[in-house]
Amino acid sequence: MRPASSNAAGFKGIQIFNKTPWTLKKMKIYVRFYNKKSWIVRDCKSIDEILQTASKRIEDSLPVANAAVWSGISRMITQQRYIKPRSTNIIEHQISVLLRYTNDSLNKSNPKDLATVTLSIAKILRSIRQAHDRRRVNIYHQAFGSVLQDDNSKPDQSIFHALVKATDANLPDFKSQALANTAYAYALLGYDPKIDGRSLMGGIAEKSIDCIHQFKAQEIANIVWSYAKLKLDHPQLFQSVGDSVASKRDLNGFNPQNLANIVWAYATTNALHAGLFQSVGDSVASKRDLIEFAPQALANIVWAYATNSIQHPGLFQNVGDIIVAMDDLRSLQPQDLSMIVWAYATIKAQHPNLFQKVGDAVAAMDDLRSFNPQNLSNIVWAYATNKTHHHDLFKKVGDHIAAMDDLSSFEPQALAIIVWAYATNDTQHTNLFQKVGDAIASSDGSKAFQTQNLANIVWAYAKLDVKHLDLFKKIGKSIGALDDFSSFKSQHLANIAWSFAVIDMDVPVAFNDAFIRVLVEKQNEFN
User: Fold this and answer.
1) What is the 3-state secondary structure of 160-182?
2) pTM
3) Around Cβ 165, how many Cβ atoms within 10 Å?
């Protein structure tokens, strides 16, 4: 029998297949799906119920129901609304049935359904990763992981092969939402799919450029975030998006996370678009309060401007003011705090009250175990670069590092930055310098120190007159063994020479013939 007209049934835009009593029941489901957009979730209270329903009915359903099933599972597995399932094997079988139908129905699926299935599976796999990270893996994570992942716990690319092929074939008909959702899905997966040697993401970018005027705020944020997350360079796409954003009368349609994700994406990909950054900056600077901005969004925004070396005094003033006005900074994570002060120091944006507020907050913490080495080095670097003295902050950080069992988690650059910052700020911390010196002197050389690191370390110790014989012996021996100093900048050479000259310790001579020769060659570069 032919599909009945949607008007005959009294519902706009829906075709109803009228064959059997089951089909009549299915008709109601589809009507509910189109009207409520979540029929499977409303009818089922658990993933187990969704899978049982789908395994019995999905093969007689339209592709839109298949998309709804995957969407419902992706939401429910994140919300962890579970009941005790019957058996892992049964669940895996039901997932396999669903996956088999999904593959069989792809040639009948429209772009929206294809994008929904791709994004839903990506979200399920993200939930599995997060569950493992948090050590909260349940039977559903195990079952879906067993079917959707390969032996290395990575997304099984064979599963996505048919999806990629169907997406590529239907790409000319994709609208903005489907384009953004598909790109976002593969960004979540960390997967740049190829079809016949071509990048699917390349095709998505080209199609997006053609219809960029159709993209809503969330879709714009998602599309550029996805390419940045995958480390894919597509200047034309970023230019097109930038032009679109910059041409808008205002950015009131963009929520705080949209704005943060957009500028983060441009900074991450080193994409420059003055008009976009000006528009976003003006929007943030013009807001009377930024209470709707999550702390991480504020951190990402100022980080992006600093990373791209873009000045916007109004933005930095407004963000600084709102942080200072906060009752406390407990909502800011260690990475947020370090990114914020790093950004202000990098861009040379002066906001003394901000630095005081952040310094007071860090110094007042019970401990700094939640700060990783990069957080710590970025914070003290920012205060030293900004020429801001905060005794309690530097004492807190120094005490924390000095009390650690070992410094193996610190990269050479982090150690060099830390002692440089203390010396630049004329801040003594005997235990910290002893700890760092011992760590470097006893290192096995597996972590190589760049020339700038070596120069900053010896300069810091000499500047504060900290005598650490083993440290200078280690570095002196390393420098003395070199026969090529062409990569050394004149400032590094000068710092090394000065440090060994003034430290007044019996250490091996670091100044071999090659070192002296390069000093002579670069003498005109010295102040």
Assistant:
1) HHHHHHHHHHHHHHCCHHHHHHH
2) 0.85
3) 16
